[in-house]
Amino acid sequence: MSASLLDQYTMPNYRRYEFYPERGEGSYLWDRDGKKYLDFAGGVAVCPLGHSHPEVVKAIQDQAAKLIHVSNWFQIPQQGELAKILVDDVLGIPGKCFFGNSGAEANEGLIKIARKYGIAKPAADGTPRHEILTFTGSFHGRTFATMTATAQEKIHGGFGPLLPGFKYLPFNDISALEAAISPNTVAILLEPVQGESGVHPATPEFLRAAAKLRDKHDLLLLFDEIQCGLGRTGDLGGWRSIVPGDEILPDAISWAKSIGSGYALGSFWARKRPVGDGMDLCDILGPGSHGSTYGGSPLACATALATVGVILRDNLAANAKALGSSISNAVSAWQVPALKGVRAFGCMIGLQLDTAVIEANEDFKTSGKAASIWVGQLLLDAGLLVIPAGLDVVRLLPPLNASGDEAREALSILERVLGKIGV
Ligand SMILES: Cc1ncc(COP(=O)(O)O)c(C=O)c1O
Predict the structure, then answer these.
(1) Atom 9, ligand 1: which residue's CA is nearest?
(2) Chain segment 48-60, per-residue pLDDT in tens
(3) Same domain membership, residue 275 and residue 361
(4) What's the gap in Å between 324 CA and the centre of ligand 1?
(5) Of 130, 124, 110, which is closest to residue 184 (Cα–Cα)?
């Protein structure tokens, strides 16, 4: 499809680069003119195995030839298989999963669970609790509830009135969190490593404080692991890259992106935690309370089973950790004026740009672009795909199975391109 058809017939909500990928294999993409690119954008953390991984392709082909879709009115055993792997092998914490189609939809599920919990465990005066605490720099999606949960005005812009029941707090501020909890508070929702705001982690102290406050006030601790989960940060549970092991017990987690290698699938998990009347949190969404026509179709589950299966079998979380460390060590040693620093959690890496240096650049001045988008263009021209985050960060989100040679190739392009700015 030509750009003009896109411009004419699709809504103008995306700011797209003039780049026409046509084919992908592993860590590489080829455009319509046959030019090869190293893809460290990964569909914004969607491609943990790179493009068209043979085992994922085979799983899709085999399942598509057998049965693509069947309604959730009927049995879909692949959902059970996938949920067992997520519960037992990815998390190792008893609970249950639901399958939908996207990240925002998975977070909607977390919000619905919190609302149900607030009814099951009301305030002392019997009023259902429904307030959810979220944090500056967060991104939880574009549906009404998840857009409202996102504590960023630029995401809310023009869509008010927003959904009631969310309170925004400064990220990593323990006193603000303590002070904000009211009799109406029911949950704390956070990304253990924020992605869209530029790879900003929760501090270990903040995660520990959130878990303690959850216990003290009988709240739910909800983790949005849509970007940081399933091995990307170097651990299968993203929060375990911040506080290792089982010290922090989340109550519910959302996933999407990596889970389906680009096939539309989202999921949320809730813990087996008693909520009264013999009921557990993971059973709180009873028959008829939630659903999705496409969610967890045989084809979606087969794709995810192949994807998550390879992540586990090949220990790709460990590979992601090693890759992230080697990239961040290399970048930290550079003397590049346009770069202020690097934040790396496995294959979730943020390069902090020095906007003062970039703003002095003559080409930048005439571009009319944010520094992150402008740098993204320079890197694209040089054959490396990255993803802008906010105004002054570019993210590297390589496949978890990227090789050392591919990391060195990315580093060489980055050093050459960034090194030319501001000198
Ligand atoms: C942390 C996080 N939550 C939620 C979402 C929304 O996911 P989706 O675009 O699949 O709805 C994203 C997407 O970037 C995300 O990074």
Answers:
(1) 103
(2) 999 999 999 999 9
(3) no
(4) 22
(5) 130
